[in-house]
Amino acid sequence: MFRTHNMILDQAARELCRELRRKQTRAESIFWKKVRGRKFQGLKFYRQFPIFYEYNNHESFFIADFFCLEKKIVIEIDGIIHNTKFKQDVERTRILNDLGLTVFRIKNEDVETNIKQVLQKLFLFLEKQNKDLN
Fold first, then answer.
1. pLDDT tens figures, 38-53
2. Is the per-residue pLDDT at 31 higher than 60?
3. Model pTM?
4. Contact between residue 47 and residue 27 where contact means Cβ atoms under 8 Å apart
5. Where does 25-123 show beta strands of DSSP type E?
6. Which of 31, 53, 103, 104 sits 20 to 30 Å CA-CA off 94?
């Protein structure tokens, strides 16, 4: 359930995504420049992408920092705020996994200081994921 038929929820998600794109972090900007336009492994990535889900008969959404539908992977670039949001991140990852998505987390500082290494780790992660499926 990546989409919703709830027009109010959909509009709220669209507006929030637009706002987050306008206010992207430095790390998000660096990462986006490396993956947009199928620059990374020929894969299509979306930034600030809403993923709708239903939990306890309540429909809501997460906004993925980056999302690749082809590989069903959510890429989260975590800033310092995530040091205090461990429980929320674990629950979010569980829900996303239940939707058939894999979450790949990267720290802001890793993107800012060594984007090549981050992309290599992502490449290896995707390779492992491909092998696990075969």
1. 999 999 999 999 999 9
2. yes
3. 0.89
4. no
5. 46-55, 58-68, 73-78, 102-107
6. 31
Residue 78, amino acid: D
Instruction: Sort residue 124 into left (φ over 0), alpha (ψ -120 to 50) or beta.
Output: alpha
Supply the pLDDT for residue 134: 62
Domains of the chain: 7-133 (3.40.960.10)
pLDDT at 1: 54
From residue 40, alpha-carbon distances to 43, 77, 122, 130 in Å are 6, 17, 10, 16
Q: Is 129 exposed, middle or buried (0-12, 13-18, 19+ CB in 10 A)?
A: middle
Contact indicator for 82, 109 with CB cutoff of 8 Å:
no
CB 85 within 8 A of CB 42: no
User: Mean per-residue pLDDT for 27-34?
Assistant: 97
Answer yes or no: are the C-beta atoms of 133 and 104 closer than 8 Å: no
Find out whether 74 and 103 touch, Cβ atoms under 8 Å. Answer: yes
